[in-house]
Amino acid sequence: MKEKNANLKKVLKREKTSYLMLLPNIILFAVFTIYPLCWVLRYMCFDYKGYGEAVFTGLDNFVRVFTRDKEFWNSVVNTIVYVAGKLFLTLPIAFLLAVLLSKQTKANTVAQSIVFTPTIMSSAVMALIFYLLFNTYNGDINRFLMSLGIIHTNVNWLGVKLAMGTVVIIAVWGGIGNYMVYFIAGLTGVPQDVYESAKIDGAGSVQILFRITLPMMTPIIKMVLMLALVVSFMDMQSIMVLTEGGPMGRTNVMFLYLYQLFFPITVGSSVPQEFGYGAAVSLVSACIVGLFTGLYLFLGRKLDKVME
Protein backbone atom coordinates (compact mmCIF):
# COMPACT_ATOMS: atom_id res chain seq x y z
CA MET A 1 0.00 0.00 0.00
CA LYS A 2 2.83 2.37 0.89
CA GLU A 3 4.55 1.57 -2.40
CA LYS A 4 1.38 2.40 -4.34
CA ASN A 5 1.05 5.74 -2.51
CA ALA A 6 4.70 6.49 -3.18
CA ASN A 7 4.27 5.69 -6.87
CA LEU A 8 1.14 7.85 -7.03
CA LYS A 9 3.02 10.78 -5.49
CA LYS A 10 5.83 10.35 -8.02
CA VAL A 11 3.36 10.35 -10.90
CA LEU A 12 1.60 13.46 -9.57
CA LYS A 13 4.91 15.23 -9.10
CA ARG A 14 6.10 14.28 -12.59
CA GLU A 15 2.82 15.25 -14.26
CA LYS A 16 2.17 18.32 -12.10
CA THR A 17 2.55 20.74 -15.00
CA SER A 18 0.10 18.79 -17.16
CA TYR A 19 -2.53 18.72 -14.41
CA LEU A 20 -2.11 22.45 -13.76
CA MET A 21 -2.67 23.16 -17.46
CA LEU A 22 -5.82 21.03 -17.40
CA LEU A 23 -7.14 22.68 -14.23
CA PRO A 24 -8.77 25.76 -15.90
CA ASN A 25 -10.65 23.54 -18.35
CA ILE A 26 -11.77 21.23 -15.56
CA ILE A 27 -13.05 24.19 -13.52
CA LEU A 28 -14.94 25.66 -16.50
CA PHE A 29 -16.39 22.24 -17.33
CA ALA A 30 -17.57 21.80 -13.74
CA VAL A 31 -19.10 25.29 -13.53
CA PHE A 32 -20.76 25.48 -16.95
CA THR A 33 -21.62 21.81 -17.58
CA ILE A 34 -21.72 19.70 -14.42
CA TYR A 35 -23.43 22.31 -12.22
CA PRO A 36 -26.20 23.18 -14.76
CA LEU A 37 -26.78 19.47 -15.33
CA CYS A 38 -27.20 18.86 -11.61
CA TRP A 39 -29.50 21.89 -11.38
CA VAL A 40 -31.69 20.46 -14.15
CA LEU A 41 -31.83 17.05 -12.51
CA ARG A 42 -32.86 18.75 -9.27
CA TYR A 43 -35.95 20.54 -10.66
CA MET A 44 -37.32 18.09 -13.22
CA CYS A 45 -39.83 16.71 -10.71
CA PHE A 46 -40.99 20.15 -9.52
CA ASP A 47 -43.41 22.80 -10.71
CA TYR A 48 -41.06 25.77 -10.73
CA LYS A 49 -41.49 28.97 -12.77
CA GLY A 50 -38.10 30.45 -11.94
CA TYR A 51 -39.50 32.41 -9.01
CA GLY A 52 -41.43 31.60 -5.87
CA GLU A 53 -41.49 28.18 -4.22
CA ALA A 54 -40.80 24.96 -6.14
CA VAL A 55 -43.69 22.51 -5.65
CA PHE A 56 -42.93 18.80 -5.89
CA THR A 57 -45.13 17.11 -8.53
CA GLY A 58 -43.48 13.71 -8.85
CA LEU A 59 -43.49 12.41 -12.42
CA ASP A 60 -46.25 14.74 -13.62
CA ASN A 61 -43.82 16.73 -15.81
CA PHE A 62 -42.84 13.56 -17.68
CA VAL A 63 -46.49 12.48 -17.98
CA ARG A 64 -47.22 15.89 -19.49
CA VAL A 65 -44.37 15.52 -22.00
CA PHE A 66 -45.59 12.17 -23.28
CA THR A 67 -49.35 12.66 -23.11
CA ARG A 68 -50.36 16.32 -23.10
CA ASP A 69 -47.70 18.37 -24.87
CA LYS A 70 -48.47 18.21 -28.61
CA GLU A 71 -46.32 21.27 -29.25
CA PHE A 72 -43.19 19.46 -28.07
CA TRP A 73 -43.79 16.46 -30.33
CA ASN A 74 -44.53 18.77 -33.25
CA SER A 75 -41.13 20.33 -32.58
CA VAL A 76 -39.57 16.85 -32.61
CA VAL A 77 -41.10 16.18 -36.04
CA ASN A 78 -39.88 19.58 -37.26
CA THR A 79 -36.41 18.75 -35.96
CA ILE A 80 -36.29 15.45 -37.84
CA VAL A 81 -37.37 17.18 -41.07
CA TYR A 82 -34.78 19.93 -40.52
CA VAL A 83 -31.95 17.49 -39.72
CA ALA A 84 -32.77 15.24 -42.68
CA GLY A 85 -32.91 18.18 -45.10
CA LYS A 86 -29.71 19.74 -43.81
CA LEU A 87 -27.67 16.51 -43.86
CA PHE A 88 -29.04 15.39 -47.24
CA LEU A 89 -27.86 18.64 -48.84
CA THR A 90 -24.85 19.71 -46.77
CA LEU A 91 -22.70 16.57 -46.72
CA PRO A 92 -22.82 15.65 -50.45
CA ILE A 93 -22.12 19.26 -51.47
CA ALA A 94 -19.31 19.57 -48.91
CA PHE A 95 -17.76 16.29 -50.09
CA LEU A 96 -17.98 17.32 -53.75
CA LEU A 97 -16.35 20.67 -53.00
CA ALA A 98 -13.63 18.90 -51.01
CA VAL A 99 -12.84 16.64 -53.97
CA LEU A 100 -12.75 19.60 -56.38
CA LEU A 101 -10.70 21.89 -54.12
CA SER A 102 -8.36 19.40 -52.42
CA LYS A 103 -5.38 20.06 -54.73
CA GLN A 104 -2.92 22.60 -53.34
CA THR A 105 -3.18 25.56 -55.74
CA LYS A 106 -3.61 29.28 -55.12
CA ALA A 107 -7.03 29.29 -56.77
CA ASN A 108 -8.22 26.38 -54.61
CA THR A 109 -6.89 28.06 -51.46
CA VAL A 110 -8.87 31.21 -52.24
CA ALA A 111 -11.98 29.14 -53.03
CA GLN A 112 -11.63 27.19 -49.78
CA SER A 113 -11.43 30.44 -47.82
CA ILE A 114 -14.56 31.80 -49.51
CA VAL A 115 -16.56 28.61 -48.87
CA PHE A 116 -15.35 28.43 -45.26
CA THR A 117 -16.13 32.10 -44.44
CA PRO A 118 -19.84 31.54 -43.50
CA THR A 119 -18.72 29.06 -40.83
CA ILE A 120 -16.94 31.73 -38.81
CA MET A 121 -19.86 34.17 -38.99
CA SER A 122 -22.19 34.64 -36.06
CA SER A 123 -25.37 32.62 -36.52
CA ALA A 124 -27.47 35.58 -35.41
CA VAL A 125 -25.79 37.98 -37.84
CA MET A 126 -26.07 35.46 -40.67
CA ALA A 127 -29.76 34.91 -39.94
CA LEU A 128 -30.42 38.66 -39.86
CA ILE A 129 -28.75 39.10 -43.26
CA PHE A 130 -30.85 36.31 -44.76
CA TYR A 131 -33.97 37.75 -43.15
CA LEU A 132 -33.39 40.92 -45.15
CA LEU A 133 -32.59 38.95 -48.32
CA PHE A 134 -35.71 36.78 -48.05
CA ASN A 135 -38.02 39.63 -47.03
CA THR A 136 -41.34 39.27 -48.81
CA TYR A 137 -41.81 42.86 -50.00
CA ASN A 138 -38.35 44.38 -50.45
CA GLY A 139 -35.98 41.40 -50.23
CA ASP A 140 -33.24 41.07 -52.85
CA ILE A 141 -34.14 37.44 -53.58
CA ASN A 142 -37.63 38.35 -54.79
CA ARG A 143 -36.29 41.33 -56.73
CA PHE A 144 -33.68 39.20 -58.48
CA LEU A 145 -36.13 36.42 -59.40
CA MET A 146 -38.67 38.96 -60.67
CA SER A 147 -36.01 40.64 -62.83
CA LEU A 148 -35.30 37.25 -64.44
CA GLY A 149 -39.00 36.64 -64.97
CA ILE A 150 -38.97 33.48 -62.84
CA ILE A 151 -41.67 34.83 -60.51
CA HIS A 152 -44.28 37.53 -61.10
CA THR A 153 -45.44 38.16 -57.55
CA ASN A 154 -43.55 38.36 -54.27
CA VAL A 155 -42.92 35.01 -52.61
CA ASN A 156 -43.33 34.71 -48.85
CA TRP A 157 -40.17 32.69 -48.18
CA LEU A 158 -40.77 32.72 -44.42
CA GLY A 159 -44.46 31.85 -44.69
CA VAL A 160 -46.20 28.66 -43.63
CA LYS A 161 -45.39 26.69 -46.80
CA LEU A 162 -41.77 27.68 -47.41
CA ALA A 163 -40.37 28.59 -43.97
CA MET A 164 -38.80 25.19 -43.23
CA GLY A 165 -37.23 24.97 -46.69
CA THR A 166 -35.78 28.47 -46.33
CA VAL A 167 -34.35 27.67 -42.90
CA VAL A 168 -32.74 24.48 -44.26
CA ILE A 169 -31.16 26.36 -47.20
CA ILE A 170 -29.64 28.91 -44.82
CA ALA A 171 -28.32 26.12 -42.57
CA VAL A 172 -26.76 24.40 -45.59
CA TRP A 173 -25.05 27.63 -46.66
CA GLY A 174 -23.61 28.09 -43.19
CA GLY A 175 -22.44 24.50 -42.68
CA ILE A 176 -20.87 23.46 -45.99
CA GLY A 177 -17.49 25.09 -45.31
CA ASN A 178 -16.96 23.38 -41.98
CA TYR A 179 -17.58 19.87 -43.28
CA MET A 180 -15.62 20.58 -46.46
CA VAL A 181 -12.53 21.18 -44.31
CA TYR A 182 -13.05 17.81 -42.56
CA PHE A 183 -13.35 16.02 -45.89
CA ILE A 184 -10.26 17.75 -47.29
CA ALA A 185 -8.31 16.63 -44.22
CA GLY A 186 -9.48 13.07 -44.90
CA LEU A 187 -8.59 13.26 -48.60
CA THR A 188 -5.02 14.28 -47.78
CA GLY A 189 -4.65 10.97 -45.95
CA VAL A 190 -5.43 8.90 -49.06
CA PRO A 191 -2.09 7.70 -50.57
CA GLN A 192 -1.39 9.21 -53.98
CA ASP A 193 0.15 5.91 -55.10
CA VAL A 194 -3.32 4.37 -55.12
CA TYR A 195 -4.62 7.05 -57.48
CA GLU A 196 -1.61 6.72 -59.78
CA SER A 197 -2.01 2.94 -59.95
CA ALA A 198 -5.72 3.31 -60.76
CA LYS A 199 -4.97 5.77 -63.57
CA ILE A 200 -2.35 3.42 -65.03
CA ASP A 201 -4.96 0.65 -65.03
CA GLY A 202 -7.28 2.91 -67.02
CA ALA A 203 -9.71 4.00 -64.32
CA GLY A 204 -11.66 7.18 -65.01
CA SER A 205 -12.45 10.01 -62.57
CA VAL A 206 -15.88 8.60 -61.68
CA GLN A 207 -14.49 5.10 -61.08
CA ILE A 208 -11.70 6.51 -58.90
CA LEU A 209 -14.24 8.50 -56.87
CA PHE A 210 -16.62 5.58 -56.19
CA ARG A 211 -14.15 2.68 -56.01
CA ILE A 212 -11.16 4.29 -54.31
CA THR A 213 -11.90 7.66 -52.71
CA LEU A 214 -15.25 6.84 -51.09
CA PRO A 215 -14.22 3.43 -49.66
CA MET A 216 -10.98 4.85 -48.22
CA MET A 217 -12.84 7.85 -46.81
CA THR A 218 -15.46 5.72 -45.02
CA PRO A 219 -14.06 6.26 -41.46
CA ILE A 220 -13.92 10.04 -42.00
CA ILE A 221 -17.40 10.12 -43.54
CA LYS A 222 -18.83 8.19 -40.57
CA MET A 223 -17.20 10.56 -38.09
CA VAL A 224 -18.37 13.67 -39.96
CA LEU A 225 -21.90 12.28 -40.32
CA MET A 226 -22.19 11.60 -36.58
CA LEU A 227 -20.85 15.08 -35.76
CA ALA A 228 -23.24 16.69 -38.25
CA LEU A 229 -26.15 14.68 -36.86
CA VAL A 230 -25.62 15.82 -33.28
CA VAL A 231 -24.92 19.45 -34.24
CA SER A 232 -28.00 19.60 -36.49
CA PHE A 233 -30.25 18.35 -33.69
CA MET A 234 -29.06 21.23 -31.50
CA ASP A 235 -29.38 23.98 -34.14
CA MET A 236 -31.64 26.83 -33.06
CA GLN A 237 -29.85 30.21 -33.18
CA SER A 238 -30.57 31.11 -36.80
CA ILE A 239 -34.16 29.82 -36.55
CA MET A 240 -34.73 31.90 -33.43
CA VAL A 241 -33.65 35.08 -35.25
CA LEU A 242 -35.43 34.28 -38.53
CA THR A 243 -38.83 32.98 -37.47
CA GLU A 244 -38.86 32.52 -33.66
CA GLY A 245 -40.25 29.06 -34.41
CA GLY A 246 -43.13 30.34 -36.53
CA PRO A 247 -45.21 30.73 -38.50
CA MET A 248 -47.75 28.53 -36.70
CA GLY A 249 -44.91 26.49 -35.18
CA ARG A 250 -43.69 25.22 -38.58
CA THR A 251 -40.02 25.88 -37.75
CA ASN A 252 -40.16 25.40 -33.98
CA VAL A 253 -37.43 22.77 -33.52
CA MET A 254 -36.86 20.76 -30.37
CA PHE A 255 -34.06 22.76 -28.75
CA LEU A 256 -35.68 26.09 -29.61
CA TYR A 257 -38.83 24.93 -27.82
CA LEU A 258 -36.66 23.89 -24.86
CA TYR A 259 -34.86 27.25 -24.88
CA GLN A 260 -38.22 29.07 -24.77
CA LEU A 261 -39.24 27.17 -21.66
CA PHE A 262 -36.27 28.70 -19.83
CA PHE A 263 -35.95 32.03 -21.68
CA PRO A 264 -39.13 33.19 -23.49
CA ILE A 265 -38.07 35.01 -26.68
CA THR A 266 -40.78 37.67 -26.49
CA VAL A 267 -43.14 38.96 -23.81
CA GLY A 268 -46.15 37.45 -25.59
CA SER A 269 -44.47 34.15 -26.35
CA SER A 270 -46.78 31.15 -26.76
CA VAL A 271 -44.38 29.10 -24.62
CA PRO A 272 -44.49 30.24 -20.94
CA GLN A 273 -41.45 30.17 -18.70
CA GLU A 274 -41.40 26.88 -16.79
CA PHE A 275 -38.06 25.82 -15.34
CA GLY A 276 -39.34 22.59 -13.79
CA TYR A 277 -41.10 21.39 -16.93
CA GLY A 278 -38.18 22.60 -19.05
CA ALA A 279 -35.84 20.42 -17.02
CA ALA A 280 -37.98 17.36 -17.79
CA VAL A 281 -38.16 18.29 -21.49
CA SER A 282 -34.39 18.69 -21.59
CA LEU A 283 -33.90 15.14 -20.34
CA VAL A 284 -36.37 13.74 -22.89
CA SER A 285 -34.71 15.78 -25.66
CA ALA A 286 -31.28 14.48 -24.69
CA CYS A 287 -32.63 10.92 -24.79
CA ILE A 288 -34.08 11.49 -28.27
CA VAL A 289 -30.74 12.78 -29.58
CA GLY A 290 -28.98 9.85 -27.88
CA LEU A 291 -31.46 7.43 -29.45
CA PHE A 292 -30.78 8.69 -32.97
CA THR A 293 -27.03 8.74 -32.36
CA GLY A 294 -27.11 5.19 -30.98
CA LEU A 295 -29.22 4.03 -33.93
CA TYR A 296 -26.72 5.56 -36.33
CA LEU A 297 -23.79 3.85 -34.59
CA PHE A 298 -25.64 0.51 -34.57
CA LEU A 299 -26.45 0.71 -38.28
CA GLY A 300 -22.87 1.79 -38.98
CA ARG A 301 -21.47 -1.30 -37.27
CA LYS A 302 -23.92 -3.56 -39.11
CA LEU A 303 -22.92 -1.98 -42.43
CA ASP A 304 -19.23 -2.47 -41.62
CA LYS A 305 -19.83 -6.18 -41.00
CA VAL A 306 -21.71 -6.54 -44.29
CA MET A 307 -18.91 -4.83 -46.23
CA GLU A 308 -16.15 -6.97 -44.68
TrEMBL record:
SUPFAM superfamilies: MetI-like (SSF161098). It is a multi-pass membrane protein. The chain crosses the membrane at residues 20-42, 80-101, 113-134, 140-160, 167-188, 208-233, 254-271, 277-299. Pfam families: BPD_transp_1 (PF00528). InterPro entries: MetI-like (IPR000515), MetI-like_sf (IPR035906). It comes from the Bacteria. One of its GO terms (cellular component) is plasma membrane. Residues 76-296 form the ABC transmembrane type-1 domain. The keyword Ligase does not apply. Keywords: Cell membrane, Membrane, Sugar transport, Transmembrane, Transmembrane helix, Transport. It is found in: Cell membrane. One of its GO terms (biological process) is transmembrane transport. The keyword Transmembrane helix applies. Belongs to the binding-protein-dependent transport system permease family. This is ABC-type sugar transport system permease subunit. It comes from Hungatella effluvii.
